[in-house]
């Protein structure tokens, strides 16, 4: 469809040029036949010539349109909307200035300078408003009803609420952020920096098969988040050329947006905390919502491997919590009843210690006496 439109455009342009200019050009040919000087003949010749040219230009023009479409699809709607408004304002201001320049009727100043000024004003207007869109949005946000609106939207520094949640690469690849969003426990607007997008694309194109799978999984998670109705996902295009580290760029972005970083990266977590930036760590959330067990509680588990000390066996709960069972070495690949003796919280997660229940021990003793 696009190729046909391109060819049609070339043919219309060629026909128009041929109709208006070809008879005049051929008029200088004294021995030219009279019928060839007719405008209709010029129209036909122009259409044929530009049709041939169009056939050669269709492929490059389609590629150019595809690149432009891809570039605009990666930009967020607020970025384009505020940038367009700024460009229009710049054009209006340039037009007002150009009226006086044209009135001077001076060479270059009245002819060339207005063109340069118009292009520069449109570019500056687009750049300023797109980069400062959050500040502009705050200027025009309603200030009425302070008791309700300001307490929610203008909270002081140090409180837990932030409207913008800036996603780190590790949180996207991990994938659990999608499940958290689907449950409705995360509010506000999710923001993905274009630096994170580039990092995900680089990982997805890696020669290492494991990295490639992780990168593609991250891109799939982003697509799924974009389709979620519970939350809004935005792409941020701000540039931070002062540093090469993506983590530091995300820290600066979070400061500018007064947001929170969502990450699984331990180092980024510490850097953000050092700069008093709120962090949502999905690993910490996972550990916090794991089932609480108390000493003396009974449960049924399956011993899957040996422990590190003495005759211990190791089992796991459905959420991945490790259970160390005393005397469990002798019941590998068996489902046994155990009693919780204690639990320990570590950086890697929660660890539960247990022992075989009295019923299980009596069964074991009975089997030993029969032997």
From TrEMBL:
Domain TRAM as annotated: residue spans: 292-353
Parts of the chain that traverse the membrane = 34-58, 79-101, 107-128
The protein's UniProt keywords, in alphabetical order, are: Hydrolase, Magnesium, Membrane, Nuclease, Transmembrane, Transmembrane helix
Q: Which cofactor does it need?
A: Mg(2+)
Q: Which domain of life is it from?
A: Bacteria
InterPro entries in the record? Nucleic_acid_metab_PIN/TRAM (IPR052041), PIN-like_dom_sf (IPR029060), PIN_dom (IPR002716), TRAM_dom (IPR002792)
Question: Which protein are we looking at?
Answer: PIN/TRAM domain-containing protein
| Highest classification ranks of the organism | Bacteria, Bacillati, Bacillota, Bacilli, Lactobacillales
């Amino acid at each position: 469809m696009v190729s046909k439109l391109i060819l049609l455009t070339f043919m219309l342009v060629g026909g128009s040029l041929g109709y208006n200019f070809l008879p005049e050009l051929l008029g200088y040919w004294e021995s030219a036949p009279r019928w060839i000087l007719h405008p209709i003949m010029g129209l036909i010749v122009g259409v044929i010539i530009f049709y041939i040219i169009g056939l050669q230009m269709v492929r490059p023009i389609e590629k150019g349109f595809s690149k432009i479409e891809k570039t605009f699809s990666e930009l967020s709607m607020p970025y384009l909307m505020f940038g367009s408004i700024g460009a229009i304002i710049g054009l209006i201001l340039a037009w007002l200035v150009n009226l006086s320049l044209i009135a001077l009727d001076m060479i270059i100043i009245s002819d060339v300078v207005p063109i340069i000024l118009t292009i520069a004003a449109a570019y500056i207007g687009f750049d300023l408003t797109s980069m400062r869109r959050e500040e502009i949005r705050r200027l025009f946000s309603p200030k009425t009803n302070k008791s309700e609106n300001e307490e929610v939207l203008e909270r002081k520094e140090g409180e837990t609420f932030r409207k913008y949640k800036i996603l780190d690469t590790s949180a996207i690849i991990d994938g659990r952020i999608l499940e958290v969003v689907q449950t409705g426990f995360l509010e506000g607007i999710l923001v993905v920096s274009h630096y994170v997008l580039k990092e995900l694309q680089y990982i997805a194109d890696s020669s290492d098969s494991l990295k490639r799978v992780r990168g593609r999984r991250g891109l799939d998670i982003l697509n799924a988040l974009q389709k979620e109705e519970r939350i809004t996902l935005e792409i941020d295009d701000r540039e931070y050329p002062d540093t090469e580290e993506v983590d530091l760029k995300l820290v600066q972005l979070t400061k500018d947006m007064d947001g929170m970083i969502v990450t699984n990266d331990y180092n980024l977590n510490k850097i953000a905390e050092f700069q008093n930036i709120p962090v949502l760590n999905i690993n910490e959330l996972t550990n916090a919502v794991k089932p609480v067990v108390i000493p003396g509680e009974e449960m049924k588990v399956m011993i899957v491997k040996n422990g590190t000390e003495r005759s211990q066996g190791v089992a796991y709960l459905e959420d991945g919590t490790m259970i160390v069972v005393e005397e469990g070495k002798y019941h590998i690949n068996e489902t046994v009843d155990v009693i919780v003796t204690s639990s320990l919280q570590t950086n890697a997660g929660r660890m539960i210690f247990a022992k075989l229940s009295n019923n299980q021990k009596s069964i074991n003793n009975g089997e030993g006496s029969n032997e």
